[in-house]
Amino acid sequence: DRQTLVAVLQFLRRSNLRESEEILRREARLLGDDLGAAALSPASAGLLGGSGSDADSGGSVATVATSSPGVAAVAAVPPAKGEARGDCGVGPSSRREPREVGSPVSSPSSKITHAGDVIGGAVVVEDQPDVSAVLSAYNQQGDPTLYEEYYSGLKHFIECSLDCHRAELSQLFYPLFVHMYLELVYNQHESEAKSFFERFHGDQECYYQDDLRVLSSLTKKEHMKGNETMLDFRTSKFVLRISRDSYQLLKRHLQEKQNNQIWNIVQEHLYIDIFDGMPRSKQQIDAMVGSLAGEAKREANKAKVFFGLLKEPEFDLPLDDEDEEGENEEGKPKKKKPKKDNVGSKSKKQDPNAPPQNRIPLPELKDSDKLDKVMNMKEAARRVRLGPECLPSICFYTFLNAYQGLTAVDITDDSSMIVGGFADSTVRVWSVTPKKLRSVKTAADLSLIDKESDDVLERIMDEKTASELKILYGHSGPVYGTSFSPDRNYLLSCSEDGTVRLWSLQTFTCLVGYKGHNYPVWDTQFSPYGYYFVSGGHDRVARLWATDHYQPLRIFAGHLADVTCTRFHPNSNYIATGSADRTIRLWDVLNGNCVRIFTGHKGPIHSLAFSPNGRFLATGATDGRVLLWDIGHGLMVGELKGHTDTIYALRFSRDGEILASGSMDNTVRLWDAVKAFEDLETDDFTTATGHINLPENSQDLLLGTYMTKSTPVVHLHFTRRNLLLAAGAYSSQ
Asked: pTM (2 decimals)?
């Protein structure tokens, strides 16, 4: 649009942005004389910026006096004060400044200045930029009485279109419904809004019911000021993936009907990711949609991810003395030795998909860690090979009389201790082996010990403190997440009180309280290498910490609702987060970028598990489905249906042959992971367009369902020999 262009050029000239003006003029092939000569008609002024009601709303709108009779208004954009974000389509930051506040028309020229700038002598006044600026985009645009007609007209058009386009275009119903409703409410047409909502809310997909419930409570302009759901919807463009043919069809229809109201919303609030190729079927679309902000843009899953495993450090295994013991027990030590060498040699090959060994600094191995690795290898040699013919035994730890309310469980890697986080703000640690839990002696007693003696580690422990259970006091709210460090010296717990605490398992006291989240912290987890840990909470961000830093090292911002669960990738270079916005994101620890966004769940995510080889991710949510993802290609590759309630626990067996899932429906289910991941169709076309064909084979993959009497399953853990441990609190109702 030439007039728009001229207005922008004039603005640049007045702001002494000569260079930008030159570039734009060269791009548009406009000469200097044209600029002065072209006067702005009042019509184009209206096109450039909001009408009177934009200014009335107290939003940040500045008026620019131009050299022509017309006046152009320029919408001010508050600078985001949030964290720096990568180019991964991340939404508003945790502080929720809007990213862009457009004027009613989508012309990019209307998004020029920063708030607080003086433009053409008019100062921009910021009045709560985060809310009013966001809402000012809903200024009066159409006749309120026609909204129902507009919507039903589009609905009729889509329902009468060809089957192949209907499924794709039906995705428009929900975002258009929400934006049109909010527009009516914002402009105080309350009765029209109510009637619009009642007439069309029943047409929306069932998985949007919870969002619609929130929406139905917004009936007055005042309600919209502080409502987060509303702000999210407004600030993050809703992403729809549509084939070019379907998009052209829609565009033609709206232009013929001159249905500007809907076309403006499409332009302003939706991000349509157009692909070339066949339109997707209803099943293919249903598999991927359902999150708060629509699907992920295809660009969001293009970055390279190093999903391979790091090379194990090589060290000499001090096997000799232990092997003599082995001889006494079994009388065949010779067989065991070559096996050990195999384990050592297997890890010497570098995985082609692994990150460089020094990509992020990892802690050095201590002698005790090396000893533990040796023990781990010995256990691995006796590990049971699982499969459809050989299912694991399951040992269930039931917390009886847990009237305090069990809210979190973790088990150490060597399966020697179990911890429970409770709603009465305590953390309780049990020993599940005959070895009792003991604290280190007092400083006075320690000074008497001979530090050179062989059994010094045994002598420093105080036998008088030995007990099966230790209770840790310190939190001031329910404990929602617990995690043991890999070396079993530390324990993390996170709570509703907004802190993450680090406890010593030598003294059973709190060492540090990490304060960063201002709201409840829902989950925390140690890195598989120790030292680093991650936490996620109600403030919609995940934070990466190191045990020796008070402040977080990284803040991962982008989710549009609470971060409900967090998991480290086995190579510790990535972190997966699941959220109540119904998406899963994968973050790069090195630079804090979001490298994958997975959509498809229809409810908040509550469990995550990486396969041992690092290639796949399994996720569970309140919708009772387990979804399987290929991390390298950024694709959904499977769906496991069977649970009837929220899935709170997921775990792969040690070699990745079996996936165990535990749910609030009081069952543990075992799935054939090998079969689920074989023969995957991950060709470039699928990756490019998202035409995923999920096999309907949940029943073939289900290897077993195990009921508890009345105990929801909150945690699962495979021991080093592939025995499955499960845990939960008995509920009497």
From this structure: 0.76
Kindly provide the residue ranges of all beta strands, DSSP E only, lying in 163-215, ordered along the sequence.
none
pLDDT tens-digit series, residues 502-541: 999 999 999 999 998 989 999 999 999 999 999 999 999 9
Are 561 and 603 in contact, with CB atoms under 8 Å apart? no
Class of domain 144-295: mainly alpha
421-679+696-719 is a CATH 2.130.10.10 domain: yes
Pairing of the two strands 270-275 and 238-243: parallel
Do 144-295 and 421-679+696-719 have matching folds? no
Catalogue the E-assigned strands of 17-163: 61-65, 71-77, 111-114, 118-119, 122-123
Q: b/e for 374-407, b at 16 or more Cβ within 10 A?
A: beebbbbeebbebbeeebbebebbebeebebebb
How far is Cα 145 from Cα 35, in angstroms, rounded to an integer?
42
Residue range 154-184, pLDDT digits in tens? 888 888 888 888 888 888 888 888 888 888 8
CB 269 within 8 A of CB 674: no
Beta strand 583-588 pairing with 61-65: unpaired
- Exposed / middle / buried, residue 343 (Cβ in 10 Å: 0-12, 13-18, 19+): middle
Question: 28-84, pLDDT tens digit by residue?
Answer: 766 544 444 444 333 333 333 333 333 333 333 333 333 333 333 333 333 333 333
How many alpha carbons lie under 13 Å from residue 455 in its C-beta half-sphere? Answer: 3
Task: Indicate the domain borders of the chain.
Answer: 1-29, 144-295, 421-679+696-719
CB count within 10 Å of CB 1 equals 12
Q: Which residues of 575-603 are buried (b: 16+ CB within 10 A; e: fewer)?
A: bbbbbbbbbbbbbbbeebbbbbbbbbbbb
Extract the tokens encoding 103: 């004027």
Residues facing 566 on adjacent strands:
577
